[in-house]
Structures
1.
Amino acid sequence: MVWPVRHLAWLLMTLAALDVKHHWLPDRLTVLLALSGLAAGLFSLEPGLPDRLIGGLAGFASLSVIAAVYRRIRKRDGLGAGDPKMLGAIGCWLGWQALPMVILGASLVGILVAISWRWRGQSVSADSMLPLGSLMAVAAFPLWLFQTGSGGALY
């Protein structure tokens, strides 16, 4: 079944590009990502629908709590409002078990981005804005391919 691979790839690429360019993850696209992930679960694709539902809720809730705690402690926003929605939508595709790997992968890619900025002479500080949604998209797609055994069959 090829449609899930293409659909996930195009949505993640679109969201990643918007996040890099505008720091914006539109609700319409993240909702479409979430709903299509749940729909894929209806076709008996792994992970099962219960794991996808838990993944959607856990992804959204975990980053929402982190954002709220950060805002309370630092008195400023540290995450955009779209980042929890994006992780929730990714959870609807990969299931709750993969969420820690998505965050770990996004963190590692983010570190590489920050290092590349420094090498190019750009300033990197606590106020530097990294597009977390893009970083999660970069981490999520290969995880989904590995998880499903799709092996990159995008045609």
2.
Amino acid sequence: MNHTVTRDYTDNQYPLSALTARIIAAAQQVYHTLGPGFEEVIYQRALALELPAHQVDFAREVWIEVMYKDRNIGRKRVDFIAGDSTGNVMVEIKAKSELEDVFFIQTLSYLKASGYRVGLLINFGSAKLQVKRLAN
């Protein structure tokens, strides 16, 4: 099923803007349909169903390598790696009443340690969908 994006989330000041715009549109559709109040895993499952309708390929619950001075020192699981022919975006999902600084710091740390250039932090738990684009 194709969804028409009624709002353009493209912002060319961000890398991979067209891709992140489609991911955000998919998240908006999930939020519009479910609203706040569910556990994070419910939003993960719904977003996994919605992303293909927005022409976004993805892998869910992906283990990323944490690098330190070019050496692998561990692994961390991220919610999604979503992408298309232009690149990949790391997506972290929350279902909290508000995004806290620790979530930004955590997501940015994952982004830097993994080598991905762009990340999205999406919170489905607040009165309005919260989305933060992060670049490494």
